[in-house]
C-alpha cells in the first residue's frame, strides 16, 4: 500500500529533478529517496521517472501519477489546515529567508513577537544576500528585494522600490560626479558580489531605454550594509534601494548622482508556496512581516519626501 510520505517524496523528486536535491529538502539521504521511489514503482508496476547521469524526468505514466498526487496532497493539506484553523493555534516549523539588512532590522525583531503569540511554532531564519533555491531549501517564506522572475511561488508585494546611485561628499570632492552613465566606468563602484551575483552589471534607465554597464571597483562584499559603510567612508559610488540610504541622503552624508538616469527599480515582497490554504503559522508570519516591511519602507522614504508605491 502506498504511503503519503512516499507520494510526497515522489513529488519532490519530480520537482527538483534529482534524488539528492529531494533528499536535501526532505532531510533524507539520496539512497532512502531512491529506495522509496523504486518501491513505489514496483507497487504500481510501471516506471515513473527516467534517470540519466544528469537529470531525471517524468515518464508518461509518471506525469499522470504526478497530477493525481498533487490533488491527493492538496486534499490532505486542506484537511490538515482545516483542523489547524479550527484549533486556531499555529504550530510546526517555519523556515524563513531574508536579505541581511532587512533581516536584521525588520524580520529578526518580529520573531520574539511572533513566538510570544505562537509559542508552538519553531522558526528557522536564514539571512543572506544570496537568492536561495526555495524548493531545494524547503523554504516556507522568502523576503525578496529583487526583480522578481516567474515562480511557482505566490508573491505578496510590499512595494515597488526605487534605487539610487550615491556617494559621500568626500569621494565626490576628489572625483568629479558622473554626468552620464558611461562615466561610471571611470569610477570606483562598490559591488555586491557572491557566487552567481549579477550586481557587477548596473542597469540604468535613460529615457525610454536602459543601458547596462560592466562597472568595477577596488573593493566588493557580499553584504549590502558593508557597501553602505564604505560609501559613507568615501570609498566609491554605491547602488542602493532608496529607503536603505534615505536617512544618509536626508542628512547629507551621501549625495545622489545620475538622478536623471536612475537604476532600474526592484520589487520588495514575500514569496511562499502556492497552495489553496496556507498553514496558520505561514499566514500569521506573512501578515506580520508584510505590515512591518510596509511600515519600515514608508518611514524611511518619508525622510526624503518620497512614498512607497
TrEMBL record:
<keyword id="KW-0614">Plasmid</keyword>
<feature type="domain" description="HTH lysR-type">
    <location>
        <begin position="2"/>
        <end position="59"/>
    </location>
</feature>
<keyword id="KW-0805">Transcription regulation</keyword>
<comment type="similarity">
    <text>Belongs to the LysR transcriptional regulatory family.</text>
</comment>
<dbReference type="GO" id="GO:0003700">
    <property type="term" value="F:DNA-binding transcription factor activity"/>
</dbReference>
<dbReference type="GO" id="GO:0003677">
    <property type="term" value="F:DNA binding"/>
</dbReference>
<keyword id="KW-0238">DNA-binding</keyword>
<dbReference type="InterPro" id="IPR058163">
    <property type="entry name" value="LysR-type_TF_proteobact-type"/>
</dbReference>
<dbReference type="Pfam" id="PF03466">
    <property type="entry name" value="LysR_substrate"/>
</dbReference>
<dbReference type="Pfam" id="PF00126">
    <property type="entry name" value="HTH_1"/>
</dbReference>
<dbReference type="InterPro" id="IPR005119">
    <property type="entry name" value="LysR_subst-bd"/>
</dbReference>
<dbReference type="InterPro" id="IPR036388">
    <property type="entry name" value="WH-like_DNA-bd_sf"/>
</dbReference>
<keyword id="KW-0804">Transcription</keyword>
<dbReference type="InterPro" id="IPR036390">
    <property type="entry name" value="WH_DNA-bd_sf"/>
</dbReference>
<dbReference type="InterPro" id="IPR000847">
    <property type="entry name" value="LysR_HTH_N"/>
</dbReference>
<protein>
    <submittedName>
        <fullName>Transcriptional regulator, LysR family</fullName>
    </submittedName>
</protein>
Amino acid at each position: 500500500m502506498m504511503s503519503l510520505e512516499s507520494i510526497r517524496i515522489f513529488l519532490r523528486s519530480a520537482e527538483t529533478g534529482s534524488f539528492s536535491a529531494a533528499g536535501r529538502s526532505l532531510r533524507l539521504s539520496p539512497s532512502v529517496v531512491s529506495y522509496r521511489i523504486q518501491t513505489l514503482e514496483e507497487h504500481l508496476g510501471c516506471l515513473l521517472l527516467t534517470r540519466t547521469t544528469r537529470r531525471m524526468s517524468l515518464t508518461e505514466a509518471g506525469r499522470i501519477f504526478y497530477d493525481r498526487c498533487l490533488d491527493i496532497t492538496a486534499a490532505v493539506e486542506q484537511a490538515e489546515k482545516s483542523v489547524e484553523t479550527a484549533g486556531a493555534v499555529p504550530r510546526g516549523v517555519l523556515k524563513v529567508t531574508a536579505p541581511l539588512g532587512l533581516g536584521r532590522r525588520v524580520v529578526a525583531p518580529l520573531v520574539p513577537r511572533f513566538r510570544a503569540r505562537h509559542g508552538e511554532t519553531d522558526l528557522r531564519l536564514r539571512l543572506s544576500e544570496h537568492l536561495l533555491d526555495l524548493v531545494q531549501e524547503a523554504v516556507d517564506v522568502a523576503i525578496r528585494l529583487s526583480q522578481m522572475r516567474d515562480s511557482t511561488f505566490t508573491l505578496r508585494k510590499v512595494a515597488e522600490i526605487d534605487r539610487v546611485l550615491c556617494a559621500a561628499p568626500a569621494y565626490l570632492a576628489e572625483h568629479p560626479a558622473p554626468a552620464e552613465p558611461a562615466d561610471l566606468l571611470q569610477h570606483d563602484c562598490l559591488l555586491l558580489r557572491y557566487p552567481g551575483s549579477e550586481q557587477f552589471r548596473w542597469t540604468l534607465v535613460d529615457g525610454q531605454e536602459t543601458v547596462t554597464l560592466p562597472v568595477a571597483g577596488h573593493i566588493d562584499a557580499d553584504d549590502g550594509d558593508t557597501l553602505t559603510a564604505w560609501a559613507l567612508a568615501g570609498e566609491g559610488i554605491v547602488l542602493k534601494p532608496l529607503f536603505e540610504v534615505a536617512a544618509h541622503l536626508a542628512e547629507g552624508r551621501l549625495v545622489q548622482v545620475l538622478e536623471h538616469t536612475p537604476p532600474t527599480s526592484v520589487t520588495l515582497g514575500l514569496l511562499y508556496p502556492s497552495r489553496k490554504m496556507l498553514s496558520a503559522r505561514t499566514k500569521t508570519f506573512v501578515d506580520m512581516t508584510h505590515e512591518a516591511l510596509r511600515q519600515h519602507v514608508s518611514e524611511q522614504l518619508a525622510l526624503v519626501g518620497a512614498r512607497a508605491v
